[in-house]
Amino acid sequence: MCLAIPGRIIEIKESNAIVEYYTSERVNAKIVEGSYREGDYVIVQAKLVIEKVPKKEAITWLNALKENES
Amino acid sequence: MKVENYFLKYAFPCSFVLKQRGEIDDKIIARLERAAINNDKVSRELLERVYFRAFFRIKVLAEELEKDYWDLEVIKEYFLKRHNELLDGMFNDKDDKGLDVDPKAPKFLKNLCKVFVARIIKKGEDFLVVEYDNGKRRVVSNALVLEAKVGDNVSIHYGYAVELLK
Fold it and tell me: Which residue, A9, B67, B84, B133, is most buried by CB atoms nearer than 10 A?
Protein backbone atom coordinates (compact mmCIF):
# COMPACT_ATOMS: atom_id res chain seq x y z
CA MET A 1 0.00 0.00 0.00
CA CYS A 2 1.42 3.36 -0.85
CA LEU A 3 1.09 6.46 1.27
CA ALA A 4 2.41 9.56 -0.38
CA ILE A 5 4.98 11.89 1.15
CA PRO A 6 4.49 15.59 0.41
CA GLY A 7 7.35 18.04 -0.07
CA ARG A 8 7.41 21.83 0.21
CA ILE A 9 8.16 24.13 -2.72
CA ILE A 10 11.08 26.30 -1.66
CA GLU A 11 11.72 27.99 -5.00
CA ILE A 12 10.02 28.44 -8.35
CA LYS A 13 11.88 29.63 -11.45
CA GLU A 14 9.67 29.80 -14.54
CA SER A 15 8.09 26.37 -14.58
CA ASN A 16 10.72 24.61 -12.49
CA ALA A 17 10.05 24.04 -8.79
CA ILE A 18 12.58 23.02 -6.16
CA VAL A 19 10.80 20.77 -3.69
CA GLU A 20 12.26 19.97 -0.28
CA TYR A 21 11.35 16.97 1.91
CA TYR A 22 11.53 16.60 5.68
CA THR A 23 14.62 14.44 5.12
CA SER A 24 16.28 17.59 3.71
CA GLU A 25 16.43 15.95 0.30
CA ARG A 26 15.61 18.31 -2.58
CA VAL A 27 14.30 17.53 -6.04
CA ASN A 28 13.52 19.52 -9.17
CA ALA A 29 10.06 19.14 -10.62
CA LYS A 30 8.25 20.67 -13.58
CA ILE A 31 5.00 22.59 -13.13
CA VAL A 32 2.86 21.88 -16.18
CA GLU A 33 -0.63 22.70 -14.97
CA GLY A 34 -2.22 24.87 -12.30
CA SER A 35 -0.59 27.63 -10.25
CA TYR A 36 1.77 27.12 -7.36
CA ARG A 37 3.59 29.33 -4.85
CA GLU A 38 6.65 28.95 -2.68
CA GLY A 39 5.54 27.31 0.55
CA ASP A 40 2.96 25.07 -1.14
CA TYR A 41 3.05 21.39 -0.26
CA VAL A 42 3.03 19.15 -3.31
CA ILE A 43 3.39 15.59 -4.50
CA VAL A 44 6.16 14.99 -7.01
CA GLN A 45 6.64 12.00 -9.24
CA ALA A 46 8.54 11.39 -12.47
CA LYS A 47 9.99 14.93 -12.11
CA LEU A 48 6.49 16.41 -12.36
CA VAL A 49 4.47 18.32 -9.80
CA ILE A 50 1.43 16.05 -9.61
CA GLU A 51 -0.93 17.76 -7.19
CA LYS A 52 -1.07 20.27 -4.36
CA VAL A 53 -1.65 18.95 -0.84
CA PRO A 54 -3.66 21.16 1.55
CA LYS A 55 -1.13 22.61 3.98
CA LYS A 56 -2.88 21.46 7.14
CA GLU A 57 -3.16 17.86 5.92
CA ALA A 58 0.46 17.85 4.73
CA ILE A 59 1.83 19.09 8.04
CA THR A 60 -0.33 16.73 10.10
CA TRP A 61 0.81 13.81 8.00
CA LEU A 62 4.48 14.78 8.04
CA ASN A 63 4.41 15.15 11.83
CA ALA A 64 2.86 11.68 12.12
CA LEU A 65 5.62 10.28 9.87
CA LYS A 66 8.37 11.90 11.92
CA GLU A 67 6.77 10.61 15.12
CA ASN A 68 6.69 7.07 13.73
CA GLU A 69 10.38 7.27 12.99
CA SER A 70 11.45 8.29 16.49
CA MET B 1 2.04 -8.46 -21.93
CA LYS B 2 3.28 -10.83 -19.23
CA VAL B 3 1.40 -10.84 -15.93
CA GLU B 4 4.60 -9.84 -14.10
CA ASN B 5 4.82 -6.67 -16.20
CA TYR B 6 1.13 -5.95 -15.80
CA PHE B 7 1.59 -6.17 -12.03
CA LEU B 8 4.69 -3.99 -12.12
CA LYS B 9 3.04 -1.19 -14.10
CA TYR B 10 0.38 -0.87 -11.43
CA ALA B 11 2.71 -1.39 -8.48
CA PHE B 12 5.65 0.72 -9.70
CA PRO B 13 4.11 4.16 -8.98
CA CYS B 14 4.42 3.43 -5.26
CA SER B 15 8.07 2.44 -5.39
CA PHE B 16 9.38 5.86 -4.57
CA VAL B 17 7.58 5.76 -1.23
CA LEU B 18 9.35 2.47 -0.44
CA LYS B 19 12.61 4.23 -1.23
CA GLN B 20 11.81 7.14 1.07
CA ARG B 21 11.14 4.57 3.77
CA GLY B 22 14.53 3.00 3.14
CA GLU B 23 13.10 -0.36 2.08
CA ILE B 24 14.64 -0.29 -1.39
CA ASP B 25 17.51 1.65 -2.93
CA ASP B 26 18.05 3.69 -6.10
CA LYS B 27 19.47 0.70 -7.96
CA ILE B 28 16.32 -1.34 -7.49
CA ILE B 29 14.09 1.64 -8.33
CA ALA B 30 15.99 2.19 -11.57
CA ARG B 31 15.68 -1.49 -12.46
CA LEU B 32 11.95 -1.55 -11.71
CA GLU B 33 11.41 1.69 -13.62
CA ARG B 34 13.21 0.35 -16.70
CA ALA B 35 11.29 -2.89 -16.55
CA ALA B 36 7.97 -1.08 -16.12
CA ILE B 37 8.54 1.24 -19.08
CA ASN B 38 10.24 -1.22 -21.44
CA ASN B 39 8.32 -4.36 -20.48
CA ASP B 40 11.64 -5.98 -19.53
CA LYS B 41 11.56 -9.44 -18.03
CA VAL B 42 11.25 -9.18 -14.25
CA SER B 43 11.25 -12.03 -11.76
CA ARG B 44 8.34 -12.95 -9.55
CA GLU B 45 10.77 -13.40 -6.69
CA LEU B 46 11.91 -9.78 -6.90
CA LEU B 47 8.36 -8.44 -7.18
CA GLU B 48 7.10 -10.53 -4.27
CA ARG B 49 10.02 -9.38 -2.17
CA VAL B 50 9.66 -5.65 -2.89
CA TYR B 51 5.87 -5.53 -2.88
CA PHE B 52 5.33 -7.95 -0.04
CA ARG B 53 2.40 -5.94 1.32
CA ALA B 54 0.53 -6.18 -1.98
CA PHE B 55 1.14 -9.89 -2.27
CA PHE B 56 -0.12 -10.52 1.24
CA ARG B 57 -3.47 -9.12 0.10
CA ILE B 58 -3.34 -10.61 -3.38
CA LYS B 59 -3.01 -14.06 -1.88
CA VAL B 60 -6.10 -13.46 0.25
CA LEU B 61 -8.01 -12.39 -2.85
CA ALA B 62 -6.70 -15.36 -4.87
CA GLU B 63 -7.99 -17.74 -2.24
CA GLU B 64 -11.42 -16.12 -2.40
CA LEU B 65 -11.47 -16.36 -6.19
CA GLU B 66 -10.06 -19.89 -6.05
CA LYS B 67 -7.33 -18.98 -8.48
CA ASP B 68 -3.57 -18.91 -8.47
CA TYR B 69 -2.26 -15.65 -7.02
CA TRP B 70 -0.34 -14.87 -10.22
CA ASP B 71 -3.43 -15.31 -12.37
CA LEU B 72 -3.96 -12.14 -14.45
CA GLU B 73 -7.61 -11.96 -13.39
CA VAL B 74 -6.58 -11.90 -9.74
CA ILE B 75 -3.97 -9.17 -10.30
CA LYS B 76 -6.51 -7.10 -12.29
CA GLU B 77 -9.19 -7.44 -9.66
CA TYR B 78 -6.68 -6.54 -6.97
CA PHE B 79 -5.63 -3.25 -8.54
CA LEU B 80 -8.92 -2.19 -10.05
CA LYS B 81 -11.08 -3.07 -7.07
CA ARG B 82 -9.62 -4.63 -3.89
CA HIS B 83 -6.81 -2.08 -3.57
CA ASN B 84 -9.33 0.80 -3.33
CA GLU B 85 -11.58 -1.17 -0.98
CA LEU B 86 -8.67 -1.71 1.38
CA LEU B 87 -7.82 1.98 1.30
CA ASP B 88 -11.41 2.85 2.11
CA GLY B 89 -11.27 0.44 5.00
CA MET B 90 -14.25 -1.36 3.54
CA PHE B 91 -12.65 -4.71 3.48
CA ASN B 92 -12.81 -6.38 6.83
CA ASP B 93 -10.33 -9.23 6.83
CA LYS B 94 -9.66 -10.69 10.26
CA ASP B 95 -6.28 -11.93 9.09
CA ASP B 96 -5.26 -8.63 7.55
CA LYS B 97 -2.45 -7.41 9.76
CA GLY B 98 -3.27 -3.86 8.69
CA LEU B 99 0.15 -3.60 7.13
CA ASP B 100 0.51 -0.03 6.17
CA VAL B 101 -3.07 1.19 5.83
CA ASP B 102 -2.84 3.88 8.45
CA PRO B 103 -6.31 4.97 9.54
CA LYS B 104 -4.83 8.37 10.41
CA ALA B 105 -3.74 8.94 6.79
CA PRO B 106 -5.43 12.07 5.42
CA LYS B 107 -8.17 11.48 2.85
CA PHE B 108 -6.36 13.61 0.32
CA LEU B 109 -3.29 11.42 0.38
CA LYS B 110 -5.31 8.23 0.27
CA ASN B 111 -6.76 9.48 -3.02
CA LEU B 112 -3.31 9.39 -4.55
CA CYS B 113 -2.98 5.70 -3.77
CA LYS B 114 -6.30 4.66 -5.23
CA VAL B 115 -6.51 3.45 -8.78
CA PHE B 116 -8.96 5.60 -10.74
CA VAL B 117 -10.36 5.62 -14.24
CA ALA B 118 -9.51 9.01 -15.73
CA ARG B 119 -10.05 10.88 -18.98
CA ILE B 120 -7.15 12.64 -20.70
CA ILE B 121 -7.85 16.34 -21.22
CA LYS B 122 -4.36 17.52 -22.15
CA LYS B 123 -1.20 15.87 -23.39
CA GLY B 124 2.40 17.03 -23.19
CA GLU B 125 5.66 15.40 -24.15
CA ASP B 126 6.09 13.50 -20.89
CA PHE B 127 2.84 14.17 -19.07
CA LEU B 128 -0.93 14.00 -19.26
CA VAL B 129 -3.50 16.15 -17.49
CA VAL B 130 -6.44 13.94 -16.56
CA GLU B 131 -9.86 14.39 -15.06
CA TYR B 132 -11.26 11.78 -12.66
CA ASP B 133 -13.70 11.19 -9.80
CA ASN B 134 -16.20 13.95 -10.67
CA GLY B 135 -14.03 16.82 -11.82
CA LYS B 136 -10.74 16.28 -9.98
CA ARG B 137 -7.61 17.02 -12.00
CA ARG B 138 -4.19 15.51 -11.78
CA VAL B 139 -0.94 15.66 -13.69
CA VAL B 140 0.48 12.21 -14.40
CA SER B 141 3.46 10.81 -16.23
CA ASN B 142 2.61 9.20 -19.58
CA ALA B 143 5.71 6.98 -19.58
CA LEU B 144 3.67 3.80 -19.21
CA VAL B 145 1.04 4.72 -21.85
CA LEU B 146 2.92 6.63 -24.56
CA GLU B 147 0.22 5.85 -27.13
CA ALA B 148 -2.60 7.45 -25.11
CA LYS B 149 -4.09 10.66 -26.46
CA VAL B 150 -6.58 13.38 -25.49
CA GLY B 151 -10.03 11.91 -25.02
CA ASP B 152 -8.77 8.44 -24.10
CA ASN B 153 -9.54 6.80 -20.77
CA VAL B 154 -6.65 5.54 -18.69
CA SER B 155 -6.29 4.06 -15.24
CA ILE B 156 -4.17 6.22 -12.96
CA HIS B 157 -2.22 5.33 -9.86
CA TYR B 158 -0.37 7.96 -7.88
CA GLY B 159 1.53 10.03 -10.48
CA TYR B 160 1.30 7.67 -13.44
CA ALA B 161 -1.22 6.78 -16.08
CA VAL B 162 -0.92 2.98 -16.03
CA GLU B 163 -3.18 1.37 -18.59
CA LEU B 164 -5.03 2.53 -21.66
CA LEU B 165 -8.62 1.45 -21.19
CA LYS B 166 -11.09 0.65 -23.93
Answer: A9
